[in-house]
Specification:
The structure is a homodimer of 287-residue chains. Chain A is globular, with a radius of gyration of 18 Å. Chain A has helices spanning 62-76, 92-97, 112-121, 141-147, 173-182, 200-213, 249-253, 264-270, 275-286, and strands at residues 7-12, 17-31, 36-42, 47-51, 54-58, 82-87, 104-109, 134-138, 153-159, 183-192, 217-224, 232-239. In chain A, a hairpin with a 4-residue loop joins β1 (7-12) and β2 (17-31). Chain A has a 7-stranded mixed β-sheet with strand order 8-7-6-9-10-12-11, sandwiched between helices. A 5-stranded antiparallel β-sheet of chain A has the order 1-2-3-4-5. Chain A has 287 residues and is an alpha/beta fold. The mean pLDDT of chain A is 95. Chain A folds into 2 domains: 7-58, Spermidine Synthase, Chain: A, domain 2, CATH 2.30.140.10; 62-286, Rossmann fold (3-Layer(aba) Sandwich), CATH 3.40.50. Helix content of chain A is 30%, strand content 31%. Chains A and B meet through β1, β2, α8 and α9 of A and β1, β2, α8 and α9 of B.
């Protein structure tokens, strides 16, 4: 069957696959200095934000991504007080981070318009933007980390787009070196690391770049994400000093806030890598 | 963008979403007594089999489904010797089951043409069809289990299609009662149970039907499956007598055969249900 104009389609370049969402109407469109921002009302996924035609967030399934970008790293750090988010313009990750007793969260998003549009069309994701612990800055995250004070953060969350265009630098060893410097002793970094099925090569390159930058332990977590390429996504976590395989499981079990995907058992399970990925990472790390 | 005729598209009815795979050409099509069987050469997913226009199997991602339909249940049973597969016409599950030291596997597929076409176009999945331990039967699985000798199997694997049309009966309490009777003491059943994101209601109904039929413990496992609706799939496991939360982890760690997705840690991780599903199952089981 062919899909008509009532559908939004994202073709996953080089993967010979595409996902489509049924659209009721377009609610907003604008060209920001950086990209084309569009908001759609879908049939069953609630609202959809696309940037340059790529799915960023839908009401229906964003909870998995945002919870898995925040709670695993925060329950791995013994006492996260100062958090830096690079990217994250829709503010969903920020909202999850602020459920923890952190002291300050600085979010550095390149495109202020993404955040302003999210505030208008995704109010639930932006519900904590006025939390006194949140500082929203609109600037280049790569430059920000270069200029940042050494040892100023416990956790860095890299919530950027695909490694093409301006976000490509967010996957480089040079960037990770600056992140390492910016972290306090015991500090942790986590970054979105694409699809285990489609982008295993990128995950391996990211492990290599993080280790090359001086991070001591690197672990990938995986989780479903319906509207991202292949429906399967990952985040890669690394520690400035110690291991990141263990976490505060007791605190995660007794968490004082609601989640829809994350819990302590899910955290442990997300660290269990498929055999093919484990084998590829083992070969890569022994080379 | 709109996709042209170079794409195969499956619309996920009622979910307002669709997946498309780039197609090079159609290799085969026929109308069997039960359904329309088509084989396609895709751009990057290898070969694709569809039944009545729905994706059944692709070369690229079938390993996850077939491994998760077989190894968790077989490593949960203490000593599986006699296995019954209902459905499973592409023979991928059968191939995985035969990696274990089982004595006999009976596969009951309704549509012989699905198996014959799979033998021709998916030789890797059918590589064990001539194993002397395998018995291929072409008949109605629901009737087969009704007629089966009591206590004749250790494990039943229900590898059917979506719960519409002839496969709907594979999700009913009446069917599960016959399965229970067919199982030996300590016997286990596992059935594919659709998408946690799209079909949580079906998963709950399946738990209820299995418990209603007399199964003592019911657990759902989840895993990614790119080309099935939402890219996220599940299997639901139940025991005739005891718990199914524990498994032979040491044997799984020391498995003597290769897998690409499954391993002992992945098995444990697949049992860790997302918070929303756990909450819904908790509410449903207390009603």
């Amino acid at each position: 069957m062919a899909l008509d104009s009532r559908w939004f389609t994202e073709e996953w370049a080089e993967q010979g696959a595409a996902i489509s969402l049924e659209i009721k109407r377009k609610l907003h469109e604008e060209q920001s200095p950086y990209q084309r921002i569009e908001i759609w009302e879908t049939g069953t996924f609630g609202r959809l934000m696309t940037l340059d035609g790529l799915v960023m967030v839908t009401d229906r399934d964003n909870f998995i991504y945002h919870e898995m970008m925040s709670h695993p790293v925060l329950f791995t750090h013994p006492k996260p007080e100062s958090v830096l988010i690079i990217g994250g313009g829709d503010c969903g990750t920020l909202h999850e981070v602020l459920k923890h007793p952190v002291k300050q969260v600085t979010q550095v998003e390149l495109d202020e318009r993404v955040t302003r549009v999210a505030e208008q069309f995704f109010p639930a994701l932006c519900a904590s933007n006025n939390d006194p612990r949140a500082r929203l800055r609109f600037a280049d995250g790569i430059q920000w980390v270069k200029d940042a004070e050494a040892g100023s953060h416990d956790v860095i969350i890299v919530d950027g787009t695909d490694p093409i265009g301006p976000a490509a630098g967010l996957f480089s060893e040079a960037f990770y070196k600056n992140c390492l410097r910016t972290l306090r002793p015991g500090g942790l970094i986590v970054g979105q690391s694409e699809s285990p099925l489609f982008h295993a090569g990128l995950i391996m390159a990211m492990h290599q770049a993080l280790r090359g930058a001086g991070f001591k332990d690197v672990q990938t977590l995986h989780f479903p994400q319906c509207t991202y390429p292949s429906g399967w996504w990952s985040a890669t976590l690394a520690g400035k000093n110690g291991s990141v395989a263990n976490f505060r499981a007791q605190d995660a079990r007794n968490k004082t806030f609601a989640t829809r995907y994350y819990n302590a058992a899910v955290h442990q399970g997300a660290l269990a890598l498929p055999e093919f990925l484990q084998n590829q990472l083992r070969v890569a790390s022994s080379e």
